[in-house]
Amino acid sequence: xxxxxxxxxxxxxxxxxxxxxxxxxxxxxxxxxxxxxxxxxxxxxxxxxxxxxxxxxxxxxxxxxxxxxxxxxxxxxxxxxxxxxxxxxxxxxxxxxxxxxxxxxxxxxxxxxxxxxxxxxxxxxxxxxxxxxxxxxxxxxxxxxxxxxxxxxxxxxxxxxxxxxxxxxxxxxxxxxxxxxxxxxxxxxxxxxxxxxxxxxxxxxxxxxxxxxxxxxxxxxxxxxxxxxxxxxxxxxxxxxxxxxxxxxxxxxxxxxxxxxxxxxxxxxxxxxxxxxxxxxxxxxxxxxxxxxxxxxxxxxxxxxxxxxxxxxxxxxxxxxxxxxxxxxxxxxxxxxxxxxxxxxxxxxxxxxxxxxxxxxxxxxxxxxxxxxxxxxxxxxxxxxxxxxxxxxxxxxxxxxxxxxxxxxxxxxxxxxxxxxxxxxxxxxxxxxxxxxxxxxxxxxxxxxxxx
Length: 452
Prior knowledge:
This is Site-specific recombinase XerD. The chain has helices spanning 30-39, 45-65, 79-92, 117-133, 148-152, 202-212, 217-229, 233-237, 241-245, 272-283, 285-289, 316-329, 338-353, 358-372, 377-380, 389-415, 431-435, 438-450, and strands spanning 5-8, 19-22, 67-68, 71-72, 97-101, 104-108, 185-187, 195-197, 252-256, 264-269, 425-427. It folds into 2 domains: 5-149, no CATH class; 195-450, hpI Integrase, Chain A, CATH 1.10.443.10. It has 18 helices and 11 strands. The protein is mostly helical.
């Protein structure tokens, strides 16, 4: 018996599934297939594929190695059997230590633990959530602490009639307790360390490498979108021509947000240079692959902005293949999501450098919170009056001018024979150092929100 694998539906083949997962016997495995299609409507393709790739080894393992009361565990067994299989997998394959606690189990990662522990726990919990929602699993979600609601469902400050004001609003005293998770398996000794990417020249290094490797105009524009807007790559790849037309400002596009079910609840801003490149791409390179030869201003609203060379919507896996080639050539190991971190770091630097008072700094922070849409939009509605889009436009345009000047200076130095310096990354030392410093606590929330 081999390993689980997945295959995308070939172009021209009609199927209810765009992707099918196969088990070790090369037979379609419907639970993971349905999981993929259930999740793809909720989160970006990159995240779904990451979860799927994390789950496939578990399902290969469970068929041969897991035991509960003398029998192999099946994925649709009762909750206690599945919990035992997950527990064994965490210990045997991911090298974790587990200690039982009241109503849940604590996971202690070790020096041998895989870096995918957190990803696996999120993926397997989401899998059973999908199976329950699709009525394919008849029991309670085995990855959820059933006692959680009784213990934490009524925390101080949670008011059913009126939502508590967000901490960023600054109108209520912060709560003393930390956010609790309803997961049955809880990572105990995890220390979250956000990575602050403070290299001003990072995007220009990648642009330079792309130019040397003759990248397509499409990939250059997508990369510029990532660094200029702070949007997730999935949000950028989902953009349509209509998203550009929805905004009154010519440098803005309407965009979805993670968890918004593809509804356009936010906007992103690009520089004038990137807008010129986008229009050029749509009128030239894109037309070579598209079925319609209409130009930018004549395309239907539903048309995706970015196409593959075969004329289909450009996917994350296709983009990542090109991204990896460019970053490897630049000798930079960088996940596309880190461009979002670079954007936030740069924006925060700009806020402090271009503000005269603490009040002005705080106001711009709130503008950034709203622009990034880190919190649930319903929660954000309670302090929408704090946000002024025009103020953010002014700030963004000023920073883009600085980026353009820096980009020109970078390429001039390359032309003059200078070699790029190594990337400088400054990690925050520990979670404790963040949460105990009132001045930096909000930054911790920012990065936690970015990973949601």
